[in-house]
Design a protein that fits this description.
globular; about 140 residues; 1 helix; 6-stranded mixed sheet; mainly beta
Length: about 140
């Protein structure tokens, strides 16, 4: 979410109801992004909507393609990928991710384990990607 700053010419009327409404919307979005974990539905392609929050999780039931929407430049977010009981699931990441060392990390393969990743959107469709946790117990 980007916050814009505006300058006004003299004698510009600012409606307090609109300001209060916008402030409430921004405050709610920030609070949701900081505390809520969004449980995403598993499917052949899992799309994480970053306008709904900054922390997402999904349990992989097969090899999956991952996608993101609603990302703002400057936004950081976390994705938590859980292996189902069978394990061995792999993912194909969306394009534009820059990983340390130039290659996407390999997920843990043990059933019922979790890997976590943190991303920062540094430009339109360009992300820094980091491995934040590997093989955690689910």
């Amino acid at each position: 979410m980007a916050i814009s700053l505006y300058s006004f010419t003299s004698n510009t009327k600012i409606e307090s109801a609109k300001v209060n409404s916008n402030f409430t919307t921004i405050k709610t979005a920030i609070e949701r992004g900081l505390k809520d974990i969004i449980n995403n539905t598993d499917g052949s392609t899992v799309t994480f909507d970053m306008s709904s929050g900054n922390i997402h999780t999904v349990t992989l039931g097969g090899n999956r393609t991952l996608a993101v929407t609603g990302v703002s430049v400057g936004q950081s977010f976390m994705i938590r990928l859980a292996q189902d009981v069978s394990g061995g699931r792999t993912v194909t990441w969306w394009s534009g991710i820059k990983w340390p060392g130039g290659a996407a990390p390999t997920l843990s393969t043990t059933g019922d384990t979790v890997d976590s990743f943190v991303f920062t959107c540094i430009d339109t469709n360009t992300y820094d990607g980091y491995f934040a946790g590997f093989g955690l117990s689910s």
